[in-house]
Amino acid sequence: MAKAYWVSAYRAVNDADKLAAYAKLAGPAIAAGGGRFLARGLPAKVYEYGLPERTVLIEFDSVEQARAVHDSPDYQAALAALGDGAERDLRIIEGV
């Protein structure tokens, strides 16, 4: 079974306090579900149409595991805390 990667690219952070509340809940929910943070923070450099906003890369053992974490009650609570605090593009992709 191929590993899966959760890629979250932020387009804008509208409320730093809401983002902090989200992070406080999301980190433990993701880790408890088996997610491993590989990278997070502002990009060192952006090219083409990239935005100089926060990016997060998380590894999971499978797409199913990544989806289960996203859909879990604990992660959904984190999303509720984030609310309109950020605009982002979250993708789950299967490793090669």
From TrEMBL:
<dbReference type="InterPro" id="IPR011008">
    <property type="entry name" value="Dimeric_a/b-barrel"/>
</dbReference>
<feature type="domain" description="DUF1330">
    <location>
        <begin position="3"/>
        <end position="96"/>
    </location>
</feature>
<dbReference type="Pfam" id="PF07045">
    <property type="entry name" value="DUF1330"/>
</dbReference>
<protein>
    <recommendedName>
        <fullName>DUF1330 domain-containing protein</fullName>
    </recommendedName>
</protein>
<dbReference type="InterPro" id="IPR010753">
    <property type="entry name" value="DUF1330"/>
</dbReference>
